[in-house]
Design a protein that fits this description.
This protein is of the alpha/beta class and 317 residues long. Helix content is 23%, strand content 26%. It is built from nine helices and 14 strands. α1 packs parallel to α3 and α5 packs parallel to α6. Bound molecules: 4-methylsulfanyl-2-ureido-butyric acid. 4-methylsulfanyl-2-ureido-butyric acid binds next to loops.
């Protein structure tokens, strides 16, 4: 049995505030059809793909805020995606804002789901490394209020799908070595990541010129150090006056980029992932069983940070 998975990068261009869910789903469906025509088994869409990136605004009205979240999945507006997946026999990963009811309370998550070729949800992931800030900070050109709008998730799980082991992450997670490693320790062979990354990060404007470089650096390192395929997909372009990086890519377990989007808009690019190629790294250089020393890594889970009082306390993100 071959273990080739054809992975389509389903990069989205901007979604403006007044774009309806139906219009976005229409774009996603067109991309799904194109991916299928290229021979894709699965298409990876971005983070918060169904709406504009609303954490750029301080929204006090709860009804307005909650209009960006999904209360159920599939919802009436997203059902066509599930139906098309089943009709075409193609899976998808999709990021969206989730409003979950837990013990009578509404909890807001930044979520991704994995859907198989029958249109069934295989698993969900709730973003753990939620970036940005909690309070309104008017000095910024635009806000990044993810910490206000999303409760962090609790675990990086893996799922059996498309003939292999799949993990999911979202945007800022891709910058953290821990994300990949926890999934790789569960045997992840493919990791799907959606992102929305503004070029400008107000607390660290000196990084703005490096935002595409850092995106690629993080994903290449994560793939190589864990012997995984990583598909990382943007919502890019100029959205409500804010420029976000595009640069979606598929990286092999060797750390090499094997497919890449080249525009700032809706774009489908196919990459061929041989899952057996993971073993070339997982059984040699990164053979965890042979080479890891967990007895030396205790601090990683015992300690959160290394902030020194002399630095004047924690910096902002
Ligand atoms: N969506 C998301 O996680 N974006 C972040 C930008 C953080 S800047 C406060 C990212 O890591 O790309």
């Amino acid at each position: 049995m071959t273990r080739i998975v054809n992975i389509a990068l389903g990069q989205l261009g901007p979604v403006q505030k007044n774009d309806s869910r139906a219009s976005v789903v229409h774009r996603l469906c067109a991309m799904m059809r194109e991916a299928k025509s290229l021979g894709a088994d699965v298409i990876v869409y971005p983070e918060l793909a169904l709406t504009t990136f609303f954490p750029r605004w301080y929204i006090e009205d709860m009804a307005e805020l909650h209009s960006y979240y999904e209360r159920e999945m599939p919802s009436r507006e997203t059902l066509p995606l599930f139906e098309l997946a089943r009709e075409l026999g193609i899976g998808f990963y999709l990021g969206y804002a989730e409003l979950a009811e837990e013990a009578g309370a509404l909890i807001q998550y930044n979520t991704a789901m994995l859907v198989d070729k029958t249109g069934a949800i295989v698993g969900k992931y709730r973003k753990i490394h939620v970036p940005g800030h909690f309070e309104h900070e008017p000095w910024r050109k635009f806000q990044h209020l993810e910490k206000r709008y999303f409760t962090p998730g609790k675990s990086f799980d893996v799922h059996q799908a498309f003939g292999g082991t799949v993990g999911m992450a979202l945007c800022n997670d891709r910058r953290w070595a821990e994300s990949y490693r926890v999934m790789a320790l569960q045997g992840a062979e493919m990791i799907f990541i959606g992102y929305n990354t503004p070029v400008h990060n107000a607390p660290a404007p000196q990084h703005d010129d490096l935002s595409l470089f850092h995106n690629q650096l993080a994903v290449q390192a994560g793939a190589y150090q864990n012997g995984c395929w990583v598909a990382s997909v943007a919502k890019g372009g100029l959205e409500e006056g804010v420029q976000s990086i595009a640069g979606s890519l598929l990286v092999a377990p060797s750390g090499e980029v094997v497919a890449r989007c080249i525009t700032q808009g809706d774009e489908v690019v196919l990459g061929r992932a041989d899952l057996d190629f993971c073993a070339v790294y997982k059984r040699t250089t990164f053979n965890f069983d042979l080479h890891r020393h967990p007895e030396c890594y205790g601090l990683i889970v015992q300690k959160k940070g290394e902030t020194r009082a002399a630095d004047g306390g924690p910096w902002v993100g």
